[in-house]
Structure formats: C-alpha cells, structure tokens
User: Fold this.
Amino acid sequence: MAAPVLMFGVGAAKSGTSWLYQYLAAHPDCHLRSIKELHFFDTRDMGNRDWYLRNFTRKADEVERGIVAGGDAAPAGQIAHLAELRLYTRVLDQGDTTGYLAFVMDGREDERLVGDITPSYGLLSEDTLREMAALHEDVRFVYVMRDPVARLWSHVRMVAGRRGDGDLGARAARLLDEVLAGTAPEIAGRGDYAGTIGRLMAAVAPEKRFICTSEDLFGGDALARLCAFLDIAPFRGKPERRVHGGVEIAMTDTQRRRAAAWLRPQYDCVAANMGALPPAWQASLAGM
Assistant:
C-alpha cells in the first residue's frame, strides 16, 4: 500500500477550518481521526500541554457519561470517539512524534490522505514547521484565511462568549478595544496572516503549501484547486458551510473602520502574495 499524503491544516482560526475538517473527514479519499484538533506540535512549543491533557480528559469524561446515560442505545461512533480521546491523551502525554504519526495513520485502509487540522499550528516557528515537513515522505500544508476584519470579530465574539454572562455585545466591544490596543496578543496572533505566510514560505517548499481564502474556498475555484493539490478526487458531498458560527452581533461602523485600519498590513501582505483580494476583503478596506 502506497504511503499517503500527510496534510497539516495550520489555520487560520475562525476561517473555515471546522468546515474543511468535516469536508475532508467525509471524503472517501481521506482518513481523519474523530478529533479535529490534535494540538501536538503547538503544545510542545508553547508549554501548554498540561492544559490540553486536562481538556482532552474532560472531553473524554463527558463522552463517557453520555454513553453510560444512553445505555444500549449509545451510538457506535461515540464509543469509537471515546476510545480515540483516551488513546490520544496518552499519545500527547508521551510527546513522541513516532507515536503521534502512528495515531494519525491508525485505521487507514487505502485512503490517499491523512491529516491533522489544528489552527494553532499557524503560530509555530519556522524550525517546527520544517520538522513537520520532514516528518513523513509526503507532507503538505494548507492555510485558509478569512477577511481579516470578519475573522477578528468572529474570534472576539467567541472569546467574549466564554468570559461570562450578561451583555455579550458589551464584552465583545471591550475585548476588541483590547486587541486594537495591543493587549490581547493571543487573539491578534491568530490573525497575523503576514507572519504565518512568511514562516510557511521560509520553511515549506512552494509545491508543498496551499494558501487560499475561505471566500474563494466557498465561492470560487479554490476547493477544486485544493483537491488537486492534495491528490484527491473532487468531492460534492460537502457539509454545511457554516460551522461554529457563534452568536451574531453586528460591528458598528466605527469598530469596523478601526479594525480595518489596524489590520491593513494583513490585507497588504495577502494582496502582495496572492493578487486581487476577494470582494468581501475589498469591501472591508473601502469602509476605512
């Protein structure tokens, strides 16, 4: 059996990576584990492995409680997901790339592609990206970007929603102010397209990286080009495009102008590397 392509989906956060995971997980040419984000390389580099070990354990405990409550009616998929969570928690705890690769490959039959879609990988260093590129005989990287203002506001709403009850709009507005003031680097970094593109270009050969926008993925020809890049057949069985969309809260015109001005370097970088920006991106810039 020929070795598969090993694909790393490296972000960007809130740019359609959950949709991409569902699309590839349903594709007959692909083998993805039931855990979307494995966080193997970022936890090692960023020193937060213990947090993710607790998080995976918590998720496994929740799944197990659901299985017990369901009794004989528990879906087989949930039982398999629980087994994967327990197994991967041990793999992550050991931190060995051989064990990681074995986990990603396990269960594959003749599928052409295996993968790990973890948006946090977009924050990794050049050295770690080079290590990942050499992990297997055929490694390819996918980076999907969304209109910077829309991505930032989606991320802000998500984080604000986790920070308590009450007026979500007010919390989101305060958090946006923090980002624009430079005091929320954990959010700002996820939208640093220029930084991620620069590191990918330095660490990964051009023919092994695919960079596109989510707007083109959903409404243009990027999906067909992505399938060709990954050597998988075009596949029409797409899941719904909107995944984990969160609570809708409109930005004010002032918020949108401030965010677009602050994010202007990201727009300029993408335009310099990819040419004409999608209409949604151009509209955000026009509102500055």
Observations:
- Residues 25 and 32 are 5 Å apart (CA to CA).
- The two ends are 54 Å apart (CA to CA).
- Residues 49-70 form the longest helix (22 residues).
- The chain is about 55% helix and 10% strand.
